[in-house]
Write a structure and sequence with these properties.
The protein is of the alpha+beta class and 169 residues long. Helix content is 40%, strand content 21%. It is built from seven helices and seven strands; from the N terminus they run ββαββαββαβαααα. The strands form three sheets. It has a three-stranded mixed β-sheet, covered by helices on one side. It is elongated, with a radius of gyration of 20 Å. The chain starts with a strand and ends with a helix. The relative contact order is 0.14.
Length: 169
């Protein structure tokens, strides 16, 4: 049975499988041409759905679609998972945890690094390989440009923040 193109949970499949099918449908509609991997697993005490893709939309954009399938939330301060019953998850599936995992191509990473070099200069600018290996934490464009050596503004963090905040360049 379908509703607006989504698969309705009729009890013949696990709720996580129905949710994964619906997540695929919604992502394909919202972001045509972007290839997503949507995998669901069950484990002792629950289930999860992992959504992965390269470049394309931001994690925030994807979370806006997939989080409504999450069964509740975890409060680490009291070590408690609280289930939140909703008509949506009852009809269209659910999983205890839903994860969005965005990956970046070398081409996109290079475009970001090149754009940041124009903004900050090329002093100590890392290569794509340096960034991927986590070797850009010890240098910062801010130290030369602004007298700042704060590691929150290392090349590694600036590149990461820029990548995560932008759709494919």
């Amino acid at each position: 049975m379908t509703n607006g193109g989504l698969v309705q949970n009729d009890g013949t499949l696990p709720a996580r499988v129905v949710a994964a099918k619906n997540i695929r449908i919604e992502l394909a509609r919202a972001f045509p041409g972007v290839k997503f991997s949507v995998k669901s697993t069950s484990f002792s005490g629950g289930s999860d759905i992992n959504v992965s893709w390269t470049d394309g939309p931001t994690t925030k954009q994807i979370d806006g679609i997939i989080q409504k399938y999450q069964a509740g939330s975890f409060d680490g301060s009291v070590d408690l998972y609280t289930y939140e019953h909703s008509a949506w998850t009852e009809y269209f599936g659910t999983a205890k945890y839903i994860f969005a995992n965005r990956h970046y191509s070398d081409a996109m990473t290079k475009k970001v690094i090149d754009a940041l070099k124009l903004e900050y200069g090329t002093f100590d600018a890392p290569s794509v390989e340096d960034y991927k290996q986590g070797k850009a934490w010890s240098t910062t464009p801010m130290s030369k440009a602004h007298g700042n050596v704060d590691q929150d503004w290392s090349w590694q963090s600036i590149i990461s923040r820029t990548l995560s905040d932008h759709t494919a360049w």
